Amino acid sequence: MGAGKVAVAAGVAFLLTLGGTVAISSATAACGGGSVNLASVGTSAPVAGYSGDQLVIAGTIINAAAELELDTRAAVIAVMTGMGESSLRNLNHGDAVDNTTIGVFQQGEDYGPRADRLDPKKAATAFLTRLVQVPGWATMPPSLAAHEVQINQDPDHYTKFYPAAVEVVQALTSSASGGACSVGGDSQALAQELMTAAGNGQLRVLEPRYLAQIEDVAAGQKVPNCGIDVSILQIMVLAVRSFETVGVSDINRKCTGSQLGAGTGSSHWIEGGGKAVDFYALGGTILTGTDPQSIRLISMLDPIMPAGSRVGQVQCRAEAGISLGLRNMREFDDTCNHLHIDLAYAKGPLNVGG
After folding, report:
1. Distance between start and end Cα atoms, the chain
2. What does UniProt give as the signal peptide span (predicted)?
3. Rounded to 5 degrees, what are φ and ψ at 3?
4. Domain segments of the chain: what residues?
5. Contacts (Cβ under 8 Å, ≥6 apart) of 75
6. To the nearest whole percent, how much of the chain has pLDDT over 70?
7. Given the DSSP bridges, would you call strands 246-250 and 203-205 parallel, antiparallel or unpaired?
8. How confident is the model at residue 353 (pLDDT cuts 50, 70, 90)?
9. What is the reported pTM?
10. The dihedral of CA 279, 280, 286, 291: what is its sign?
11. In this structure, are strands 246-250 and 6-9 parallel, antiparallel, or unpaired?
12. CA distance 99 to 83
């Protein structure tokens, strides 16, 4: 199979590139993924300045991504592109540069018959099909990924539409029943779900002392300096719901007295500890911060993370030539033998339903 082709194995789609394998992930495992009920979208409240038929078109694009088993990042890029090309309107004309392009994505004749280009679902499917053939699309800045498909003059043209696209996709998918990102805020219930996952072998905690922290929360016991922030519990639950197996190596270091890494200045330690989690494996893959499963989790979480949240291993990704273009999470250096997520400096909770 040549570079840029899509392969599907075990329900997960992968983009094969010359530089390695970058995960696209499956719709069932994508945070916030799934179908949008178009019947109710048109009458819903405006989102980020878009309303009515514009939101119906956004929902149609999201559904096209879901049918192709692509994750939220693909849907956001496609919605962002539609915003930048037509303001999410199904235009039957082009612009001053090329009046032969039509539709939501302003597609030319090489995309097929006029009727197909004016069909938002077919147009979105055509865009997404070309998107996943772009080597490294899932890890490059979103506007550049869109530019590689649209071949417009300014590679940065779509950047200003990215925040609105994230907001629209998040709003429409969070209203869909059963979304993977719909998770409650009850710490005890979350910990109990994690203990169930640990019991059946899906969640594997490297050291018993960290599993004991989850067990205490599940039992309703409040042990001083041994708690776990509810957002960290939510992140672990989302990981468990999205990956076949999840490995956790570190949670609250103040509870254990461990002063590895940044010592008492670590996000695992400050403010009573429990505001960070280290994943060492996802779906059977040992994590480096650059591997497909790490990228998949980061891309899944970023749209719902609060400002000020952080993800480690940025220098590992830089060395691998991976740039994520994250909106909410700040990246920082960390060792390349795990994936670190923290909310010690975050401003607010996760943006999840439930």
Report:
1. 42
2. 1-29
3. -65, 145
4. 6-174, 187-342
5. 33, 61, 62, 65, 66, 169, 173
6. 86
7. parallel
8. low
9. 0.59
10. positive
11. unpaired
12. 18
